């Protein structure tokens, strides 16, 4: 974030996080990306010791009792340098753990929030499936009650932190009710019999953030692992707005990092006997990048600050995510162009920023889906994306 409307405490939080990013994560970040290494467990413990894993979690559960803005300030500073480190802070402050905070029972909060703040429990979200990506309400993973347990069968795809998280908040169908009506959410510990994960995906970006398919074969979990009952899809996606702001902040960080690298480079690099910044085209490009980054920051700050300690406005969130996602792709691309051949190498880190920018624009709902949401909120009506014949049930 910038100094705009940040409190003195948040400015201090920003400065300390920037120092942690530079001193701790700048050196290994490129190596973890190259080797596709997820964040070592000792680094999760370090982030917990710094208090970063509970920034926006109430103090009674081991958190710092801060705001969403506090968490986003830290996420941005870490993400400028090291996305795997930022992602752990992201998961614990804007991820599925917030569903527990808002809608879980007191016992669930004591169990999972406290462990998350201590770095003892990582929780990933499991929504997407092979045939249910943007059309999330088409999911087929099914949970049925059997005595004092839920029995879950199905599969999930593109699950960030898949294969590494200690537990998963699994969106599943709890009856034969169609669409969103039949969907709820259950926490599934990774060591539950019948649960398994596929091979780690080899993605274009997100190389230090593991991703894998999840498989549920008669997975049995106690009834008290149910967090959201059937019909609670609206609650789930209300909290998912927080995750989308975390996503937008990741994109913001990529754009800011690309801008920072570029402003330094064009003042140092000399061609035709002059620094690059002396050329008007370079000046215009830098200005264009700065405008886009600042606009994204203000949109993220508006949505997060107005949310306070509650849920953010879905319209503001979709606007922020859509703009920030596209900004990151465009600004990192322009940064690569300003660096010329150097920008195409791994040494300067621009290609890594650009690869990750495309990932955040896919995760959590694409800009195209955000535009549908924006139109829906703006006009006060819903839009059915399915063919009319399929929606009416005619063959």
From TrEMBL:
Transmembrane segments: none
Descriptive protein name: Acyl-CoA dehydrogenase family protein
Origin species: Candidatus Phosphoribacter hodrii
Annotated ranges, domain Acyl-CoA oxidase/dehydrogenase middle: 124-219
UniProt domain Acyl-CoA dehydrogenase/oxidase C-terminal: residue ranges: 232-378
Gene Ontology MF terms in the entry: acyl-CoA dehydrogenase activity; flavin adenine dinucleotide binding
Residue span, Acyl-CoA dehydrogenase/oxidase N-terminal domain: 7-120
Record GO biological process: butyrate catabolic process; fatty acid beta-oxidation using acyl-CoA dehydrogenase
Keyword Oxidoreductase assigned: yes
Keyword Disulfide bond (UniProt): no
Gene3D superfamilies, per database record: Acyl-CoA dehydrogenase/oxidase, N-terminal domain, Butyryl-CoA Dehydrogenase, subunit A, domain 2, Butyryl-CoA Dehydrogenase, subunit A, domain 3
Keywords: FAD, Flavoprotein, Oxidoreductase
């Amino acid at each position: 974030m910038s100094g705009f409307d940040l409190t003195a405490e948040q400015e201090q939080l920003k400065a300390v996080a920037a120092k942690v990013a530079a001193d701790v994560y700048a050196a290994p970040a490129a190596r973890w990306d190259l080797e596709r290494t997820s964040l070592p467990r000792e680094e999760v413990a370090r982030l917990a010791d710094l208090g970063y894993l509970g920034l926006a979690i109430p103090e009674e559960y081991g958190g710092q009792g801060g705001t969403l803005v506090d968490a986003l300030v830290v996420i941005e500073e870490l993400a400028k340098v090291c996305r795997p480190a930022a992602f752990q802070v992201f998961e614990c402050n804007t991820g599925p753990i917030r569903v527990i905070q808002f809608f879980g029972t007191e016992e669930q909060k004591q169990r999972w929030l406290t462990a998350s703040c201590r770095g003892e429990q990582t929780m990933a979200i499991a929504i997407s499936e092979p045939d249910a990506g943007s059309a999330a309400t088409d999911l087929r993973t099914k949970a049925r009650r059997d005595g004092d347990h839920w029995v879950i069968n199905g599969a999930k795809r593109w699950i960030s932190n898949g294969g590494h998280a200690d537990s998963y908040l699994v969106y599943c169908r709890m009856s034969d009710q169609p669409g969103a009506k039949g969907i709820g959410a259950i926490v599934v510990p990774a060591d539950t019999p019948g649960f398994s994960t596929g091979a780690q995906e080899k993605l274009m970006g997100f190389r230090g953030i593991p991703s894998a398919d999840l498989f549920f074969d008669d997975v049995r979990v106690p009834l008290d692992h149910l967090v959201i009952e059937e019909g609670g899809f609206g609650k789930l996606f209300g909290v998912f707005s927080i995750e989308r702001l975390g996503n937008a902040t990741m994109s913001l960080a990529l754009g800011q990092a690309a801008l920072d690298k570029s402003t330094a480079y064009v003042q140092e690099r000399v061609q035709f006997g002059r620094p690059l910044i002396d050329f008007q085209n370079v000046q215009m490009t830098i200005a264009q990048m700065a405008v886009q980054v600042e606009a994204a920051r203000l949109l993220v700050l508006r949505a997060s600050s107005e949310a306070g300690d509650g849920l953010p406005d879905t319209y503001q969130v979709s606007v922020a995510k859509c703009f920030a996602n596209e900004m990151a792709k465009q600004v990192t691309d322009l940064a690569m162009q300003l660096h010329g051949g150097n920008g195409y190498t791994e040494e300067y880190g621009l290609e890594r920023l650009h690869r990750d920018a495309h990932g955040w624009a896919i995760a959590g709902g694409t800009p195209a889906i955000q535009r549908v949401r924006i139109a829906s909120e703006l006009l006060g009506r819903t839009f059915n994306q399915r063919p009319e014949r399929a929606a009416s049930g005619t063959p």
